[in-house]
Amino acid sequence: SGNIKITFPDSNTGLKNKISFVTESPHQDETAYIAADRTAVSSAPTVLVFATGTASGASEKMRIDTSGKLGLGTTAPKGKFTILGTAAELPSSGTTANSLIQLKSNLTTELNIGLNTVTGDYGAYIQASDNNLAVPYNLHLQPNGGNVGIGTLSPMTDAALTLGASSEVGLGFSRTGSGKFDAGILVTSGHIVFKGGVDSTSLASLNELMRIDSSGNVGINETSPSAKLHVSAAYNETGLKVLGGGAGYNSPLIVGAASGTEYMRVDDDGRLLVGTTSSSSAATIVCQGSSSS
Fold first, then answer.
1. Phi, psi of 210 (to 5 degrees)
2. Alpha carbon of 49 to those of 8, 114, 216: distances in Å?
3. Is the distance from CB of 229 to CB of 223 less than 8 angstroms?
4. CA torsion 150→124→81→149, rounded to 10°?
5. Cβ 91 vs Cβ 97: under 8 Å
6. CB 133 within 8 Å of CB 92
7. 231-262: pLDDT as tens digits
8. Would the CA dihedral through 84, 90, 96, 97 be positive or negative?
9. pTM of the complete model
């Protein structure tokens, strides 16, 4: 019927039916082959093996196992497509990427995906670039819309990016090189904490600069703010400085109730006005009905 059948000689395991590719006579060196490898007797499970090499011998490079999993560089694929390769850092220049997966376009652009060594803390990378790795390009996530979740399978429906964790959630900002100032935002127990420091490897080691607690109080150099704005200053430090726009501008400081009732203000001439919003008095402190200097 036009089919080609290659029959195993018996029912033993470990048998291979191969299509071999060999060099010319009289050498007949096997440089590549495709083999059906019978891995057991019962039910005759068979994997398909692809091997390449040189005149000194061919070795397996890829296989499709009995469950349809494809392994590249491995004889035991765990996912539908498993790649086993050497971990390597992505060079910052040149045309040799050392990545495990590389996508290239006709525009000399490429995308490299790989796994790091100890130098990269055993992490992974995704890098878009020109074929010269010294020219990086943008990496677009969800360019047609859709939310992104990191650490969560349920990103917020109205947030482009949701960070999730079982306890604290942090976002770090770091510049490469030594002597650089690092910063971070940490969300913990309903508090939003702003942190900063130099050359830090973790948010925990950065110094707390400000926090907004779960009740909306803001603390500057204060981890337990007890007012809407709570500023704590060390000895010989200025705790709070309020500057206006100069003479003829609005008062730089006004204190009053949420209803709009004003209690006192410092006007643009530097006078403290209590119970009044303006005064022609030359006194430094003016109270409604009296004045003092």
1. -160, 155
2. 15, 25, 64
3. no
4. 10
5. yes
6. yes
7. 998 888 888 887 776 666 677 788 888 888 88
8. positive
9. 0.75
Amino acid type, 18: K
- pLDDT tens for residues 22-68? 998 888 899 999 999 888 877 788 899 999 999 989 999 999 999 99
